[in-house]
Amino acid sequence: xxxxxxxxxxxxxxxxxxxxxxxxxxKIEFLPTSVAPAQANDEYSxxxxxxxxxxxxxxxGDVILDSYVIVEYLDELxxxxxxxxxxxxxxxxxxxxxxxxxxxxxxxxxxxxxxxxRPKELKWQAWADDHWSRAWKGMARxxxxxxxxxxxxxxxxxxxxxxxxxxxxxxADCGWRKxxxxxxxxxxxxxxxxxVKISLPPKA
Length: 204
Hints:
This protein is of the alpha+beta class. It folds into two domains: 2-77, Glutaredoxin; 89-193, Glutathione S-transferase Yfyf (Class Pi), Chain A, domain 2 (Up-down Bundle), CATH 1.20.1050.10. It contains ten helices and four strands; from the N terminus they run βαβαββαααααααα. It has helices spanning 10-21, 42-47, 67-77, 89-117, 125-143, 146-150, 155-170, 176-179, 181-190, 194-198, and strands at residues 2-5, 29-32, 55-57, 63-65. The protein has a four-stranded mixed β-sheet. A hairpin with a 5-residue loop joins strand 3 and strand 4 (63-65). Helix 1 runs parallel beside helix 3 (67-77) and helix 1 packs across helix 7.
């Protein structure tokens, strides 16, 4: 299997952590891939027209898109029910919580594009502020989810770790640790896992 990735991508980091935890990391070849707003990448567009990271390319050439779907595939490959519940109410709670975290990362990424990439004369600050608020309020929601922060490792905890890591990477002065002490304690515990430590994004 081959995985397109960038060390800066929180979505690719999620898959990397999951692959390590599932014992599948040695079965994956990592393909460094560059994608950026307003920059063409015709070769990558042949793999996925939406140019999003990561993509898992199977040995038979089939392509699996979206970080959650990739983790779901890897989880099944590892026997199922390891990081994502196989069935029942817990499965839908995990999928719903993960969807919220995915949306938070999307919002943070769009906020960064607005503030750092868009030409100054075209910036829409209220739009960027709204997207940041979505991520910030999402952190507040998870700060109060004691069950999520303390249960055995699953995809929600991995995704939350990637959200907090991305906040450190791109919004180092946002103050999430002071605002959300439960998340701070959770993140420190997660950093004790080799999969989390080895996949930290590069210094901003």
